[in-house]
From TrEMBL:
Annotated positions of the 4-aspartylphosphate modification: 51
Cited InterPro entries: CheY-like_superfamily (IPR011006), NreC/VraR/RcsB-like_REC (IPR058245), Sig_transdc_resp-reg_C-effctor (IPR016032), Sig_transdc_resp-reg_receiver (IPR001789), Tscrpt_reg_LuxR_C (IPR000792), WalR-like (IPR039420)
Lineage: Bacteria, Bacillati, Actinomycetota, Actinomycetes, Kitasatosporales
Transmembrane parts of this sequence: none
Keywords of this entry: DNA-binding, Phosphoprotein, Transcription, Transcription regulation
Residues covered by the HTH luxR-type domain: 146-211
Tagged with keyword Phosphoprotein: yes
Protein name: Response regulator transcription factor
SMART domains: HTH_LUXR (SM00421), REC (SM00448)
Residues in Response regulatory domain copies: 1-117
Amino acid sequence: MLLVDDEPLVRAGLRAVLEAQPDIEVVGEAADGAAVIPLVRQVRPDVVAMDVRMPLMDGIEATRALLRTVAAPPKILVVTTFENDEYVYEALRAGADGFLLKRARPAEIVHAVRLIAEGESLLFPASVRQLAAEYGDGGGNRAARAVLERARLTEREGEVLRLMARGLSNAEIAARLVVGTETVKSHVSSVLAKVGARDRTQAVITAYESGFVAPG
């Protein structure tokens, strides 16, 4: 786990919460997004907790740069003060895997990190839906529509994408569709490949912006 925030107290608080867990190790800290790429290459974290607003390079640009230049990049968890923030949505659009509020309780912080690391369900799906409704293109994003048209999802893959957008895990989708979990994992992988998304969050945002799934 790598912590990136320009406030030392925030980093210290996150470190204390996370390092109290037997399965989470904080391997480094940075005070600005500009330091992220060399540090990621050095310590190879599985997850980066990234402040969305920093003085030299903010979390949005740092996310774009990290995904553009680092092979097999880590999961990115944006840390923010405000939930309904256009900066958060832009960070998700840039490739972040989810977001976490700085005022979150310790148990919520740990849950968010584990969920992002596992990548089997969407973090705070209702909040992502709300952000898409407010800051997305209302289904009018031509690029996103073109992506979905080219994807040619099967009927079952479309069902899986809609359930992903609701935040269901693979096990929950399997129960809903009365199929095996491995079958769902196969469908999810196919959806991500066809949509060109690196994770569920990116696939769901494309689904919202294309109008394939209504965020309201």
